[in-house]
Amino acid sequence: GVTLGGDRSKGTLVDVGLSQNVLVEQIVEQGKRVTVAMGTNRDLTPACVRKVVPQSSPSEEMGSYWGYKVRYASNLSGVINDSPYKEGYDHIIGTSEHGETIISSELILPSFRHLLIAFGGLAGLEESIEEDPNLNGKGANDVFPCYLNTCPNQGSRTIRTEEALLISLQYFQDPIRRAGMAS
């Protein structure tokens, strides 16, 4: 939810997308994104005070997907090498109209814990590689062990990144499920 302004004497009101805002016991600055433990009590009135929990709680406690995180990287090598995971990424995939075309049902991914799927902008990942001084002289196949065209026969010169993202996530759904997660 998103924290709201107003009286903070009993906690903070949070808009969690339901018919009423909910009250959490913590005092949180207005406009902050928070994860609220809703529990099983359906009472949305301020009499039922809830708690803000770490963003990772739904994933860790229930195995539920709970959104993605965004981080800034000054170049492509920063995206790959400055992983938020201590052990880095297990598997890295680049997407491009110049990548290899493999039917999704035939794509075999290794088991992984942390997967990175990279999407280029209008000029593609190729330009991101060329502009990165840390990747000087490398080609896309050098940077990405798996370099795929997830939108073959697209019928237009370019696909916007936000379109390619949705198409590619659907493309990868079954291969990721088949790969499973490494322990």
Summarize the structure.
This is tRNA/rRNA methyltransferase SpoU type domain-containing protein. The chain contains five helices and eight strands; from the N terminus they run βββββααββααβα.
How would you describe this structure to a colleague?
The chain is built from 5 helices and 8 strands. With 183 residues, it is an alpha/beta fold. It has 2 domains: 61 residues, no CATH class; 106 residues, SPOUT methyltransferase, trefoil knot domain (Alpha/beta knot, 3-Layer(aba) Sandwich). The radius of gyration is 21 Å and the shape is elongated. The two termini are 31 Å apart.
Which percent band covers the strand fraction? 15-25%
Helix fraction by DSSP (H/I, runs of at least 4):
10-25%
- What is the spatial order of strands in the main beta sheet? 1-2-3
CATH topology of the largest domain: Alpha/beta knot
Quaternary state of the chains:
single chain
Tell me the number of helical segments per DSSP (H or I, 4 or more residues long).
5
Judged by helices, strands and strand pairing, the structural class is alpha/beta
Mean pLDDT: 91
By CATH, the superfamily of the largest domain comes out as SPOUT methyltransferase, trefoil knot domain
Under CATH at level 1, the class of the largest domain stands as Alpha Beta
Give the helices and strands as they follow along the chain: EEEEEHHEEHHEH
Number of domains: 2
